[in-house]
Design brief:
The chain is an alpha/beta fold and 295 residues long. Helix content is 26%, strand content 24%. It binds ribose-5-phosphate (R5P).
């Protein structure tokens, strides 16, 4: 049975259809003291697939509660799907704004702490593009990741002119290449990015000719939108024609979408690992493949 967290209902339903595996009832309550309760009333299956994008502290608690609930109800196997792995960007023990070597002792590797907690209640973990592949090693349970970047080619128009798949930094080149391969044609290039603060970045382009070209920027996460909007502005100033902002995880915090529109983006597309209005494509087929193989 598929057991959905509150932030992953569309993806869980799509996964249920993809795998032809029943969708469990779920209930979410909040007590007067602020504590939450996530439950799967009536759960009755040998295998539970708990699907929770850990987009918030609440979602982290839901994950642990749902894992416990299905074990309590007799599940022999618990698979935990984290379509979006929260805290993944805190993968080093650093004080905000400082490098690891500058930081005093006493800072956590938050991604590892979260992974350990999730591991305690599951037999295995499936993640989708977890920011850095080495995050899988933080889990004590077997963990694998799924690449949803090829799906980002789906919503793009078929008539892109001289298409360029652009990574806003080196870390996204593989994603841009996956999306280009799925689209079938186009070049792959990367900008250089320097982060100035939590919501400000600076991007610089290489020698690539952008005039008149349609560009799909491909990244793993759009959070504040600073990386994408800087890239869009840069591309527009360099004469690019239509610019599409695509990402696996459209977190879109604060005014990110407005920021992108103001920068001149043609459209923003993401997957449903984070369920937003721009979630134009479902990661369910990619996740379903990982669940079918049973590794
Ligand atoms: C950074 O390494 C990531 O790949 C994304 O580029 C970043 O998380 C995007 O954040 P923001 O939207 O705040 O620039």
């Amino acid at each position: 049975m598929i057991v959905s967290g509150s932030a992953s209902q569309a993806l869980s339903a799509a996964l249920s259809a993809e795998l032809d595996e029943e969708l469990s009832a779920v209930e979410f309550e909040r007590f007067p003291d602020g504590e939450i309760l996530a439950a799967a009333p009536g759960f009755d299956a040998d295998r539970a697939v708990v699907v929770v994008s850990t987009v918030s502290a609440t979602a982290h608690v839901e994950t642990l509660q749902l894992q416990d609930a299905v074990r309590e109800a007799g599940a022999e196997e618990v698979v935990t799907v984290l379509p979006y792995v929260g805290y993944a960007r805190q993968d080093r023990p650093a004080k905000p704004g400082h490098t690891v070597s500058e930081s005093p002792p006493g800072y956590p590797v938050s991604a590892r702490a979260m992974a350990r907690a999730v591991s305690a209640g599951t037999d295995r973990v499936v993640t989708v593009n977890p920011h850095e592949e080495f995050l899988r090693d933080f889990f004590d349970a077997p963990a694998r990741s799924v690449d949803a970047a090829p799906l980002l080619a789906d919503p793009l128009p078929d008539d892109l002119v001289d298409p360029l798949f652009l990574a806003p930094d080196d870390g996204a080149v593989d994603l841009a290449r996956s999306a280009r391969d799925a689209y079938g044609t186009g070049d792959v290039e990367a900008f250089e990015k320097r982060r100035l603060s939590g919501s400000e970045v600076e991007v610089t382009a290489g020698a690539v000719d952008l005039a008149g070209r349609d560009v799909a920027i491909v990244d793993d996460i759009v959070a504040t939108g600073s990386t994408m909007s800087e890239s869009v502005e840069h591309l527009r100033q360099a004469g690019a024609s239509r610019v599409y902002a695509t990402c696996v995880h459209p977190l879109l915090v604060g005014g990110a979408l407005v920021r992108l529109r103001r920068a001149g983006v043609e459209a923003v597309y993401g997957t449903d690992t984070v369920e937003r209005s721009v979630s134009a494509v479902s990661a369910a087929p990619a996740v379903a493949d990982a669940l079918r193989t049973g590794e």
